[in-house]
Amino acid sequence: MASLSPSTINNLTIPQNPQIISNNNLRLRSKKSIISCKNHNNKNENPNNKTPILDRRNMLIGLGGLYGSTLPLITGSPANAEPMAPDVYSCALTDAAWEGSVGDFCCPPKFPREIKEFSFSDYPSPVLKNRRPAHLASKDPEYVRDYSRAIRIMRTDLAPFDPRSFYQQSKIHCAYCDASYPQLNNPDKRMEVHGNWLFASFHRWYLYFFERIMGKMINKPDFALPFWNWDHPDGMRMPEMYKDMDSSLYDSNRDIDHLSSMIDLNYSRASNNNSEIPDYWLTRSNLEVMRKQMVYPSKPSLFFGAEYRLGDDNSNRDLGAGALEISPHNIVHDWTGSGTIRGHQDMGSFWSAGRDPIFYCHHANVDRMWHLWRTELPGRSRVNIRDQDYLNAWFVFYDENANPVKVKVKDSFDIEKLGYTYEKVELPWLFQPRVRPSRPMIITPFTPDETVTFPKALDSVIKIQVRRPSKSLGRTIEEKEEEEEILVIEFELCHADVQFVKFDVYVNDPIDHSNDDEDTKVTPGMAGTYTSLSHRGMPNMSGMKNMTSGEVKRKSSLRLALNLLLAEIGVENDDIIEVALVPRSGTECLDITAVKIEFTSD
Ligand code: C2O
């Protein structure tokens, strides 16, 4: 078996600008062809022998080709009178604080009555800051010195109640991410920036101010955060600079088993131990996770998450995270956090995640994924959401001078206008060939359970046949570009989970998955994954304790793009698809309530 080292992958040349491909190139397979056993016995393990053109063609089949045509208008329901915003004067105790693990409230210092609105002229960026890959920045002693000095000053030199101190900054994340703020003028409803369309913009703004504060501390306004380049083989380990125990960048609440191992971007703590998987295989699996998560979701709602408007009640309903948040974002969090501390603190729980300096490096790469999805991937639907309620939603942060500032989602779209950019590095996942298992395996034919009735507990693999609507069949390229066919999985989950939850979804996959070992998880039929981090927010102010007993379930749903997947596995003309839902972690209290097919144009 040929082995593949990260450096081999590193040398791939990746075409960066997909061209228009003529219709002649778009040959679709008409006949159902579940991936044959031959593929699995393929001796050629070397992804260098990949055929980028073919893969790009596949990608464009799913996207409908026609890169660069006019942009569709993404509109939602009519704008509310007011957009989503926090009532920052009523920050309150959350479950996390109640549990005693925080030791105090998740609230940053009190905001004054007057809060200025952000304007680009008040926050000039004289130079374009260059965010670099953290594994490369780790080799630059001057950079590491500056970076660790900035964090040290924030940790120890600033007064504890200075809103720019590291601890107070971590509380800002906790407050927005564990629902400490009521929604403006809606005292009974909490504001939450996870599991909905606010995720990308909130975290971009959070890093923006954090980075400016760091620059101010060391008097280098051009100081830029590094990004954890986990989408590249060279970046698939914890970057060196965070592992120096004497550095301010160190955090002892991390999984010590992961300090030197390669990350598994499809990790689920309960069901695997990746120390057994050879690095070359994990590299390929990771690249395929990246490709599926970035390329499949062709529409803003699938990538950014569900709409979320002022007045929406998410205390018993998780509106729905987008692909950007679900994976690898959540997975990297849980993989990094402690293997033994409750909730996998720090990184494994939203309330504590901001206490690990690596959080900001991880999120820089999440932010970069947003940027890449917009700028590097083909398809005319990869645009930002244009709904007025989204554009005008706002947050409050503290700036580098400890002044509060109110920022809107719509001002976060252009990173260069915000004064930074990402160093260009190869995107080896963009044209990664489909994953094949690393060694011959026994293929068990897929037999759907005849008798599935919902709701059904996801305590073992669920396999069902799903009939596609008649409009699914024989769609033209334009129709597919216009509307993405999506697989919708609705479920209910115990409310105050303190654990990581994960299940995977496969379509017409030849692998049985009933007792998967690690190297059979990312397979050609993998449609996507659901993950949720330990999340103690959404307190019901009067009855918080009830929330932890498991008797309150939250409704949620997962929406996965099908256009490209079905074309890749050759079943796009089948009227029935076979769906397998595979529990991976923390699904003891999860019931599937529906599996169906819908269409979305935004
Ligand atoms: Cu607000 Cu990665 O979390």
Question: What does this protein structure show overall?
Answer:
- This protein is of the alpha+beta class.
- Helices cover 26% and strands 15% of the residues.
- The strands form 5 sheets. The protein has a 4-stranded antiparallel β-sheet with strand order 8-15-10-13.
- CU-O-CU linkage (C2O) binds at residues 173, 177, 194, 203, 329, 333, 350, 353, 363.
Q: In terms of topology, how is this protein built?
A:
Layout: H1 6-10, H2 37-40, H3 52-63, H4 95-98, E1 116-117, E2 129-131, H5 134-137, H6 141-157, H7 166-177, E3 182-183, E4 186-190, H8 199-217, H9 279-295, H10 300-304, H11 323-336, H12 350-353, H13 358-375, H14 388-391, E5 394-398, E6 404-408, E7 420-422, E8 456-457, E9 462-467, H15 477-482, E10 484-494, E11 501-507, E12 526-532, H16 544-547, E13 553-561, H17 563-568, E14 576-585, E15 590-600
Parallel strand pairs: 1-6, 2-7
Antiparallel strand pairs: 3-4, 5-6, 8-15, 9-14, 10-13, 10-15, 11-12, 11-14
Helix pairs in contact: 6-8, 8-13, 9-11, 11-13
The structure holds CU-O-CU linkage.
